[in-house]
Amino acid sequence: MSLRADAPAPPAARVHRFSRAERWVHRTTAALMGVCVVTAAVLYIPQLAVLVGRRELVVRVHECAGLALPVPVLLGLASRAFRADLRFLNRFGPHDKLWLRAALARDARPSSRPAGKFNAGQKIYAAWIAGATLVMLGTGLLMWFTHLAPLMWRTSATFVHDWLALTIGVVLAGHIGMALADPEARRGLRTGTVSREWAKREHPLWRP
After folding, report:
1. Is the pLDDT of residue 183 over 50?
2. Is 140 in contact with 63 (CB distance < 8 Å)?
């Protein structure tokens, strides 16, 4: 009897991809980001604001989730595996240029998209979301603690915070959509292991 196409590979055919600490960082960060996005939607969409009510409570939840957002990453720095993956994410090589060129040309052939443990798209996303989180934290603090800066700065911070929040929502939707299209990648974040076949196909330059 053959295995289902979406069934996990046998243990011998699987390779380790993420440590328990890395999976914890991802899940906790995703949960906090989700709270931020949902509460922001309630605060800025009138229909949701009327439906939920209790605006003051929603504001407090939004603020607390935003302040806590960097904490999982900071705690994750205690993990050697997490620090190693941060170094991988922060380094671009010639193969990453090839991956990006193929992605822009919509060339879906695995041979045209060489990648190490992380492909170029994942590296760009990680850098962008990290920078966006820091900007959101900074502008949020200026909006929260009104005595920190003059009115012009606070007005600018509000403008940047609101529009960047919308951009983050769009980017996160794309990130989730790509994750839904790749069950094995999701399984790697859930269990810490991926099939050897998937690793060779999607990340041929990775040496687990």
Report:
1. yes
2. yes
Which token pair is 16? 């380790």
16-56 pLDDT tens trace: 999 999 999 999 999 999 999 999 999 888 888 888 888 88
103 token code pair = 């992605």
Q: What was the pLDDT predicted at 144?
A: 85
pLDDT of 81-110, one tens digit each? Answer: 999 999 999 999 999 999 999 999 988 888
Q: How far apart are CA 73 and CA 131, in angstroms?
A: 13
Report the pLDDT value the prediction gives residue 1, as an integer from 0 to 100.
44
What is the pLDDT, as a whole number, of residue 154? 86
Q: What is the DSSP string of the chain?
A: -PPPTTSPPPGGGEEE---HHHHHHHHHHHHHHHHHHHHHHHHH-HHHHHHH--HHHHHHHHHHHHHHTTHHHHHHTT-HHHHHHHHHHT---HHHHHHHHHHHTT---GGG---SSS-HHHHHHHHHHHHHHHHHHHHHHHHHSGGGS-HHHHHHHHHHHHHHHHHHHHHHHHHHHHHHT-HHHHHHHHHSEEEHHHHHHH-TT---
Contact 81, 21 (CB under 8 A): yes
